[in-house]
Amino acid sequence: MAATAPRPRTTTRDPEELTRRLTAWLGTRLPGAKAVGVSVPESNGLSSETLLFEIDHPEPFGIDHPEPPVRACALRLAADPAAYTVFPVYDMPRQYRTMRLVAERSDVPVPKVLWLEEDPGPLGAPFFVMERVEGRVPPDVMPYTYEGNWLHTARDEERERLEAATVGLLARLHDQVPAAEAEFLALPGDGDALRRHVTAQRAYYEWVVDGLARSPLIEDAFARLEELWPREPGTPVLNWGDARIGNIVYDGFEPVAVLDWEMAALAPREVDLGWTVYLHRFFQDLTVAFGQRGLPDFLRRDRIEARYADLTGHTPRDMDFYTLYAALRHAVVMLRIAYRQAHFGEVAVPADPDTLILHHGSLRAMVQGSYWS
Predict the structure, then answer these.
(1) Which parts pass through the membrane (predicted)?
(2) What's residue 62's pLDDT?
(3) Is 210 known to be catalytic?
C-alpha cells in the first residue's frame, strides 16, 4: 500500500507507557523478570498490534524445562478501540486457541504461545505472548515483488522452493487438523460454512460503510459471487485465513513460523487458496503498474492449484469464485483503511469511493469475467 500512498498510522498508544505496563504485568507471571528491548516493528499490522521484547530473568523458567534467562518474545495486542479499528472485534483467546490447536495437531510451524491475558486492565486490551521466531519475512512495504528485496533477487529455483514449501503448509494444515476440533472457528448464521463465511463478510462491509459512502464496485462483486456460487463447496477445513507469504517467517527459503491467525475460520479449502493466489496478484499488479516486471512466474494460480492437488488429492474447484471472493474481501479491508486514514486527516475521501480501493481495476475485471483471460 505504501507504494502509492503514505503508510497509515497503526497505533495511537504511547510506546513508553506500554513498556512500563508490560514490565509490571510480566512480574506477575514471572516474579523477578523484566521486559527489555520493547519495540514496535515498522511493519506493525493494521489490525492487531505487535510488540517485540525480551524477557530478562535471573532464573530458568522451570526445573523440568530449564531455559535461558533471556527469551525473545512477541506480543499480540488487540487494537486500540480509539484508533478507528480495522475490524469490529478482536478475539485474542480465539487466536491463542487456534495457534495451540495447530501446534498440537499438525506439523505446521507456529510460534509457541506462552500466555493469554484476557483482562484488558494490564495493557488496555486483551493480548497473548508467544516466542519470537528469527528469520525473514517477504515485505509488504515495499512489496516483495519490487526490485531490490531479498525475494526478488533470489534465484528462480530458490523462489520455487519457497513456493512449494508454502503450498505444502496449506496442504498439511487442511489435511492434518481435525475440523471437529476446530468447531470453535465455525462462523454463526444459517447455511453451510461457505454461506456463513460470505454472510460474515457482508456484515463486515455493512459495518465499514455505516454512515459513509457505499462502494458500488464492492456491491457488484457481492452480486457476481451469487452468480458464480459453487454447486458443491465441499467439506470445510480449518482455514488459516490470512494465507499469504507476508505472514510467514522463513529461514532461508523454508518456512519456520506461520503468523497472523485472526482471520482463521472453518471454510472450504479454496478460501485459503484463493487468498494466497490473489494477495500475490495484488502486489504483482501494483508492481507492473509502477513500471516494473515484478515476479510474473512466482505463485501463479495454475501452479498453486497443481501443487495443492498433488499434495492432497483434492483438485481445487471454482477458483474464479474464490479469487474474486479474495479480491472482494481485500477491497472491504482497504476501504476501511482508507476511511480510517480520512478519519485521521491523512487522506481526503473522493467523490467516487471505489477509487479508494487500490485494486479497483482488477476487481472490476474479475466482476466482468475478464481478469484471468
Answers:
(1) none
(2) 56
(3) no
Give the pLDDT band of residue 12 (cuts 50, 70, 90).
Answer: low
pLDDT band of residue 30 (cuts 50, 70, 90) is: confident
**Type of residue found at 213:** A
Whole-number percent of the chain with pLDDT over 70: 91
Residues facing residue 131 across a β-bridge: 73
What's the whole-number average pLDDT of the chain?
Answer: 91
Angle of CA points 66, 71, 76, to nearest 5°: 125
The candidate with the shortest Cα–Cα distance to 46, out of 12, 83, 86, is 86
Per-residue three-class SS string for the chain: CCCCCCCCCCCCCCHHHHHHHHHHHHHHHCCCCEEEEEECCCCCCCCCEEEEEEEECCCCCCCCCCCCCEEEEEEEECCCHHHCCCCCCCCHHHHHHHHHHHHHHCCCCCCCEEEEECCCCCCCCCEEEEECCCCECCCECCECCCCCCCCCCCCHHHHHHHHHHHHHHHHHHHHHCCHHHHHHHCCCCCCCHHHHHHHHHHHHHHHHCCCCCCCHHHHHHHHHHHHHCCCCCCCCEEECCCCCHHHEEEECCEEEEECCCCCCEEECHHHHHHHHHHHHHHHHHHHHHCCCCCCCCCCCHHHHHHHHHHHHCCCCCCHHHHHHHHHHHHHHHHHHHHHHHHHCCCCCCCCCHHHHCCCHHHHHHHHHCCCCC
Write down the pLDDT at residue 373: 83
CA distance 331 to 215: 10
For 281, the grid coordinates are: 496478484
Catalytic residue among 140, 242, 272, 285: 242
| CATH architecture type of domain 15-131 | 2-Layer Sandwich (3.30)
- CATH 3.90.1200.10 range(s) for the chain read 156-368
Question: Does residue 47 or residue 256 have the better pLDDT?
Answer: 256
